[in-house]
Amino acid sequence: MRRRKPVEGFVLCGIFFWTIIAHLISTCLAIQLEERMEIVRKVLKEVPLIDGHNDLPWNIRKFLKNQLREFRFGEDLRDITPWSTSAWSHTDLRRLKEGMVSAQFWSAYAPCSSQHLDAVQLTLEQIDLIRRLVNLYPQHMALVTTADGIEESHRSGKLASLIGIEGGHSIGTSLGVLRTFYQLGARYLTLTHTCNTPWADCCKVDEPGRVPHIGGLSHFGTLVVTEMNRLGMIVDLSHVSVPTMLDALATSKAPVIFSHSSAHAICNSSRNVPDHVLKRIAVNGGLVMVAFYPHFVSCGEKATLKDVVAHINHIRDVAGVDHVGIGAGYDGVNLVPQGLEDVSRYPYLFAELLESERWTEEDIAKLAGRNLIRVFRQVEQVRDQLEAQGMLPIDQSIPPEDILGRSYCRYSGPRT
């Protein structure tokens, strides 16, 4: 038998020693994570976790043509085609419960290609889809239209389901359509998607070489915002240009939100919010709900949970902890950060934040849902104040010159 040389023995002892140390460190970190997860679970039992944007309704349209009899939302969609083979699928009831999500804004979306054509009809069909989906699962979901309703659903253990309309083209340049959407349960309108409307510029005009169409909001665009204030409908500025952000902030009497955007200072995507607007958001009392899409987070195809944390911390640093929330954008993206693969992963994000001493349980509660509930209540208060002042519905139409020369399907007879 060959005897080991002293050096070989020393090396083996060293390897054994560091293996033990690595195992102890790993065990310690695991214990620390579980301790933080317990704190997160405690917070999310007391405070509703609210996500500002999920595109599942459009996926149901794409995959099932809105036929809900074929949609098994209560099962794990990772085991069911076509969801199991799609990079765009991140949501089902089981994973929402695992992620401790208490309230979700579902997107009623019509693509920009439908503008001036059937955008209003498509949006109505998506609102109908959301309402039918909620009705299919009455023990698990509830349609909610108020801030109080979110808290009531949280106490009853149901997923508060809210409707957000993604894109101002969905109203067909009609305040009457806007009011009708509100009556059907829509509680925010994103002023544009990735296309200009005849009354507002989108984020695309901020990109190099692009020319603004309006330079922000037109006069009619300010009337849209004013009428939303009167209704009690949240103004959403995700997707809009920076001048449109500033015009909306100057017009709105109520707090505004970004339902799914991140920090421009970290990733200079035109979909993100620059610091000077973040400062205005703090003054306005509004909220930026951080998106998870890697192209908005790392400006590339790959991102991690820690990258999302960096955006949350930056928005907190500039605007304050009262003005940041979560708006992941699941089911509307085909790439997600490592560690935030689907709707079940929200608790891990909050646990990561708690690793820093700057984040307290109260701060996590604000980020999770209290900030959005505060904004929602303030929007409702402005509505009530305007009603008490006797403000009537705005009955003005968009000026004909604002839509002149467009491929606009429009009745040419008498109009109000």
Automatic annotation (TrEMBL):
Its cofactor is Zn(2+). One of its GO terms (cellular component) is side of membrane. Its main location: membrane. GO terms for biological process: proteolysis. PROSITE patterns: RENAL_DIPEPTIDASE_2. It is an enzyme of class 3 (hydrolase). It catalyses: an L-aminoacyl-L-amino acid + H2O = 2 an L-alpha-amino acid. Its EC number is 3.4.13.19. Pfam families: Peptidase_M19. CDD domains: rDP_like. Homodimer; disulfide-linked. This is Dipeptidase.
